[in-house]
Structures are given as structure tokens and as C-alpha cells.
Amino acid sequence: MRALAVAAALLAPHLATAQPAHVGDAFEILRTSNSEWKGDGSTGTTHDRDTLVARVITVSDAGVETEYDLPDDATADDRAREWAFPARVLKSRTAPAQLRNLAELEARRDEWLKAANLPRTACGKWYFTWNAFRVECDPESVLRTVEAFELGYEPLSEDAPWRDDQATGTAHLHRTPDGKAFLAELSVDPDAVRRDRVEADLVVAEISKKPLARETAIKVHKTEDISGTIKVRFDTDAAGNVRRRTKVVTLSIRQGEGVETRTTTEILERRPIKCAAGPNSI
Q1: In what order do the strands lie in the sheet with 63-69?
Q2: What does the pLDDT read at residue 128?
Q3: Of 66, 124, 70, nearest to 97 (Cα)?
Q4: What is the 3-state secondary structure (H, E, C) of 94-107?
Q5: pTM of the prediction?
């Protein structure tokens, strides 16, 4: 299992009233991503798949505490690589998410660095073995990973706002004629795409040990003409709660006479493992 990827596609926090969460609720959250691109006479594809299991531990006035972990079929090697899991996260409507088992994660991180024979100076650096990975040593980084797997407990509604950090402006959701899904579309933010491409170049340079100044990478991408769309579909249950999100990002990148096109489809799906209703619900 590869290192869990971090993605950012956040629903506006005021979409609707949150549905109840109960102690014992458990979900398997699957995230798949497929990319296809072509340009300069070449084509390519990539495919990624990750899974987390989320279990509601406590529900109180302070918020909902959820334990996120690797799936039950994760191997010992999977767990050795993903030292940040299991992680307990407290979420509320009024405060940022909080990591609840920080000391536990710090201890696992130290054991992981020791087993991998990595010094603390390796933290934050990129390496390549079976794939490219960053040596992450900050336990708080798990909050960003968890956010990438978050569909939320909030039922959607017609005209609810939706935004994406790679897009410009805000769109409004529209229900499909059959009432089973919501759709929205935004234009990509060229500057956001350029920033991502600059970061990708810097990572490749670090892995290949070829010096590359950030200013040089910025200059390379500054003249690119970037356009595209971000389309999202939220499939819901009978109560309007999201069970699957499909996001399709289509990009066209022109520089001089060259044109690169890229389409990335990301599917995030939450499957109930069990739902145990109890008195401690909000």
C-alpha cells in the first residue's frame, strides 16, 4: 500500500444541518484516483487507491471523536510504513480538528525512524524507492490526510455552495432530475495549477538530486496558458447524506506550440460497516 495521498476538496462548512453521529458508527472510506494525460507525442496514465476505516469513539458537547485506521486487511508492512494510524481526531462545529493521541503518534514515529535507520534530518525530504514519498515526521499532518478522506456528516441541499481550492469562485449544487445526486461545475484557477506544477518540479529535482531553484521553476510555468473545469457529483442516500463524491478535473496547458491535456477522476466513497445508534448522539 503506497503512502496515503493528501487531497484538498472542501465542502463549504455551512451546507446544512449535520446528521446524527453515534458511538459505534463505522465506515470504510475508499479513495481512488485515475489520471490520463497526453502531450508532446506521449501519453500516460496513473492509478491510485487508498482506504481508511473511520469509527466514532465518543460523541459529546465537545464534538465527535473518530478513530481513523488502516483497513483490517492491512499487512504488517503497511502498518510499519503508515505510522500515523490509528489516529483519533476530535471534530466540532466551532473549532479546528484536534489530534487526540499525539503522544502515541510521536512514539510510533520515533520507532519508525529508528527501524528505517533515518535521522531526524531526513524529515521533510523526498525519496524514491518503490514510489516517491516524503519523510513526514509531524503527527499533526494526519489531520490533512484525514481531511482528504472526509465526506462529512452533512446532508446536501439545492443551491448549497461548493468550492474547491484549485478553482475560482463558488458554485451552487443542483439536484439531478432523479433526486439521487447533486452536481456542480467550476473553472480551474490557473495560478493554483501553476503552484502545484512548481511543487512537482521541485520534488522531482530533489529526488533526482538535480539542483532547481524555486524561482527558476516559477519562471518555467509562468508563461503557461492554463484552462479547464472541475466537475463534481455527490451521490446521496434517501436522507440526502453523501455516500460518494466523484470529482473530474480536466486541464489544458499550452506553452508555445505545445499542448498538454490531463484528466483526473477522483472517487471518494463511504461504505457503512455498522451503525450502532446510542444515547450519545448529536
Answers
A1: 98-99, 87-91, 63-69, 42-60, 26-39, 258-274, 242-255, 225-236, 181-187, 174-175
A2: 80
A3: 66
A4: CCCCEECCHHHHHH
A5: 0.81
